[in-house]
Amino acid sequence: MRRNHLFRRITAVTLAAAMLSLAACSDKGGTTVTGSTENSASTAKTDDTVSSSDIQASADTSQTSSSSTSTSSADADTDINKTNGDGNDKGDTNVETVPVLRDGVRAKIGGFAGCAVTGAEADDPQVWDIITTHFEAVTLGNELKPDALFNYSVQKCPGTNQTELNGETITVPKLSYTRAEKILNKILKWNEEHPEKKIKVRGHVLVWHSQTPEWFFHVDYDKTKDYVTPEEMNKRLEWYIKAVLTHFTGEDSKYKDLFYGWDVVNEAVSDGTGSLRTDAENPNEKLSEDRHGSNSSWWHIYQSSEFIINAFKYANKYAPESLELYYNDYNECTALKKNGIIKLLKEIKEAEGAPGVGTRLSAMGMQGHYDISSPDFGSINGSIKQYAKITGKVQFTELDIKASSGYDGSAEKKAEEYEKLTDRYSSILFAITSANAMEGVEVSGITFWGTVDHYSWLQSRSNVGGGSTAGLPQCPLLFDENYQPKPCFYIFAE
Length: 494
Known about the structure:
The strands form 2 sheets. The protein has an 8-stranded parallel barrel with strand order 1-2-5-6-7-8-10-11, surrounded by 6 helices. Strands 3-4 form a two-stranded antiparallel ribbon. Helix 13 links the parallel strand 10 and strand 11. The protein has a single domain, classed as Glycosidases (TIM Barrel), CATH 3.20.20.80. The chain has 14 helices and 11 strands. It is globular and about 65 Å long. The longest helix has 26 residues. By secondary structure, the chain is α/β, with parallel strands linked by helices.
């Protein structure tokens, strides 16, 4: 069994090496790599997180586990580099050494390897070993989203405070940073003890139609009352961005050197129209719901892109110059939606200016929630280059692969699926590296949306951002349920 595994890995790596050598032959002024036409099939997506009950369960777990100390690998050799796929000890002379993912990605694209992590995952010592060994950046999966910072008080406002904004006293909801800080404090400790292997953090996300409580948009923060005016919402928007960025990246914050960038606006373009997401994306979803999946109360108030432009202006005003600011979206390779994203990116860039005056946009975040066959090489490769014409820098921010429709998790099917997954990731990496070889294109990082398969959000959601088919198992990531690297891991690591 091990020989078969190794043969598949060597074959995949050889294929990847051959493809990458082709990319290396293309200099920055070379001919554009072409592929098949854009795939117009859109993967239905409403958000990139778990269901309401799952979120609350995660929150409850986080609260429960916060009183206990998780096992840390800070003072020990990491398990992932002293075992092979069979779990044998390093003392066995036949055991191969697992390459380090972050080194492989850095060598291939010149950028970082990142992963998403939630509170439960950060508390898992085996996941923590994987993160600290193989990744140099993390994105907090839920803990920096608005509902988490409002302490998951999604049905009603958690209480209010008085604060000053631009010389005016305003009433604002209470914020809670404890869930995010629990993970960030662990990363800070790791960085202090391992200055040669520091981990940086991506903030995710300031403005999003989903996981922002409905009461935030209403008079007196009461969803039974009227919606506020755009003028009033601008104050709330600026306050929220100022509060979050100042707390985590301000000059007096202990976390100020931890963050490399922040998603300012997430998923503001409609799948169905290619225009901005409205308050009527899903006719079966009421705006009165506590937390939306598809419909946007931001749009309901503004009826325009004003809130998006203002979000980037406020972020530019309060973020340090070193903090990159991003727009982030899914289905980013489908022609209709991509054209809408491009239009929005241009609008944001046209409003650029000094802090306090204009916007700032550092890169486009291509989420990368793909399935086993689409989008194809040409769509991914071409999309990178089209976005780079506007932003220069592009990042893959939530990469994972939905399983084949016939995958059932059995040993036989798993072997087949792993081979498909290896081929799929090989094609994606080649699309990235060949685009990255072109003049004016920089893919500065690849973030996988998780580490080990059994924690993946695809296991529990259906038809969401490349989401799973309900009831079918998934194997979307580089490490399996036994915390071991899969054949696709070596595509990036070797």
